[in-house]
């Protein structure tokens, strides 16, 4: 059985899936499997075939059900002791899995800091044009006001789903915030690693990241607040939110490990 199961939902993103598989092929720790959930999009089999050294299971959903349902569809197929969710447009640095496993210790969920990068596309490959560090204290008071947990590249024990159930699809865009709150509220040990091993894509121009669609996210934010008793939470622009004093003052130092180079996949070489 593999030590880690990577879960990635995808919908018609062959280029970024190829970049993720490229990043996974470079990992210094290779005892992992990948479950790629195709959310009723074009089959990703051709891209997966470019990386035969990786153990990839493709689950094809018959109807587009949004990414939270897709993540849950992968759970019955997980064989690893640990689960690492990674979005299909994010990547991780080569020693990320190895580092997170070493850092986990007795924790049941471990997560790190993130570099958010802007980009342009050239010949199908994302070329970074800017980057900034997303690194904040792990503090439950802050977490109840602002989501400082990025699920991509985090690592948690598979048994958490046995105790807490699947991801809550009713939270939609805020499934990750809900998940970290549920883990904390259950009394499980959570650890944050001050290292930016996950690279989170956010294109200012022409991107399709869901975090930029604030109005459509309002009902789901209200559901999250009601579920956890968080009070009123504003749906402000993500980048404006980062500049609020309460958030800015909680920034922390972190180890920067990405060399800034694009992940040119076998699909585009």
Describe, in plain words, how this protein is organized in 3D:
This protein has helices spanning 14-25, 45-49, 67-74, 96-104, 140-143, 159-164, 175-185, 214-228, 238-242, 245-248; strands at 4-10, 32-38, 56-60, 82-85, 91-92, 109-122, 125-134, 155-157, 190-201, 255-256. The protein is of the alpha/beta class. Helices cover 29% and strands 25% of the residues. It contains 10 helices and 10 strands. Strands 1, 2, 3, 4, 5, 6, 7, 8, 9 and 10 form a 10-stranded mixed sheet that branches.
Task: Write the SSE topology.
Layout: E1 4-10, H1 14-25, E2 32-38, H2 45-49, E3 56-60, H3 67-74, E4 82-85, E5 91-92, H4 96-104, E6 109-122, E7 125-134, H5 140-143, E8 155-157, H6 159-164, H7 175-185, E9 190-201, H8 214-228, H9 238-242, H10 245-248, E10 255-256
Parallel strand pairs: 1-2, 1-4, 2-3, 6-9, 9-10
Antiparallel strand pairs: 4-8, 5-9, 6-7, 6-8
Characterize the overall form. globular
Major β-sheet annotation: 10 strands, mixed
Uncertain runs are: none
Radius of gyration: 17 Å
First-to-last CA distance? 32 Å
Q: What is the succession of H and E elements?
A: EHEHEHEEHEEHEHHEHHHE
- Continuous helix count: 10
Total number of strands: 10
Strand content: 15-25%
Helix amount: 25-40%
Mean pLDDT: 94
Which class do the helix and strand fractions yield? alpha/beta
